[in-house]
């Protein structure tokens, strides 16, 4: 059952247009999930009914939903309760192999001094092994910063609860009241990012 839902979710993600469509790792994951789905159908009894896939979030969540991600470095769970209050919070849904994601991360890293009062969470459904060196490679200035974390979305909660974007990187800015201020798909200028991330 878990594999059937994962296969459907991965099929949805394969429709993302920026960087995602040519990612061999994601394509392999989708093919593997499809094979597991076929095996699950073949071995299940005829009278069993397939559970519907979880609904996808077609519009960006108006406030930060409950979620459970995992810190890539430690594997420790990270939930809404772990977000420091009183400041803007930004979620960046990314693919480690996406050139646009890498470029945006580099721009944010070079301008970190202007982002010290913003919670920044890089979230990905990719293999944590691919994510482990992402900041070291593309955003060295963000490493070990108290307001920056790379999170693994093991159960594909982002696309179920936050939003299914059309492109990576997908940015979601929430205010200190946890309400959505703005969101967008794809790469933007650093001036735009800084203005939106820090807007009161």
Task: Describe the secondary structure blueprint for this structure.
Layout: H1 2-13, H2 24-43, E1 68-71, E2 77-79, E3 88-93, H3 99-110, E4 118-124, H4 128-131, H5 134-138, E5 148-152, H6 157-162, E6 170-174, E7 180-185, H7 190-198
Parallel strand pairs: 3-4, 4-5
Antiparallel strand pairs: 1-2, 1-5, 3-6, 6-7
Helix pairs in contact: 1-2
Count of separate DSSP helical elements: 7
H-E string:
HHEEEHEHHEHEEH
CATH topology (level 3) name of the largest domain? Glutaredoxin
CATH architecture of the largest domain: 3-Layer(aba) Sandwich
Spans of at least 5 consecutive residues whose pLDDT stays below 50 are 1-15, 21-47
Shape: globular
Top CATH class of the largest domain = Alpha Beta
- Can you tell me the CATH superfamily of the largest domain? Glutaredoxin
Structural class: alpha/beta
Physical arrangement of strands within the biggest beta sheet: 2-1-5-4-3-6-7
């Amino acid at each position: 059952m878990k594999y059937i839902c994962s296969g459907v979710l991965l099929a949805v993600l394969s429709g993302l247009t920026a960087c995602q469509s040519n990612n061999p790792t994601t394509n392999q994951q989708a093919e593997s999930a499809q094979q597991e789905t076929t095996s699950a159908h073949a071995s299940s009894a005829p009278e069993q009914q397939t559970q519907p896939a979880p609904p996808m979030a077609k519009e960006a969540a108006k406030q930060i939903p409950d979620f459970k991600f995992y810190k890539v470095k430690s594997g420790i769970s990270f939930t809404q309760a772990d977000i420091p209050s009183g400041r803007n919070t930004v979620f960046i849904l990314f693919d480690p192999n996406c050139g646009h994601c890498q470029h945006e991360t580099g721009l944010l890293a070079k301008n970190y001094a202007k982002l010290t009062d913003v919670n920044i969470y890089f979230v990905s459904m990719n293999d944590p092994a691919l994510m482990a060196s992402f900041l070291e490679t593309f955003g060295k200035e963000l490493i070990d910063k108290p307001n920056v974390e790379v999170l693994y979305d093991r159960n594909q909660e982002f696309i179920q609860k936050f939003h299914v974007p059309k492109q990576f990187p997908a940015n979601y800015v929430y205010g200190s009241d946890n309400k959505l201020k703005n969101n967008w798909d794809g790469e933007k200028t650093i001036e735009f990012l800084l203005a939106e991330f820090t807007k009161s």
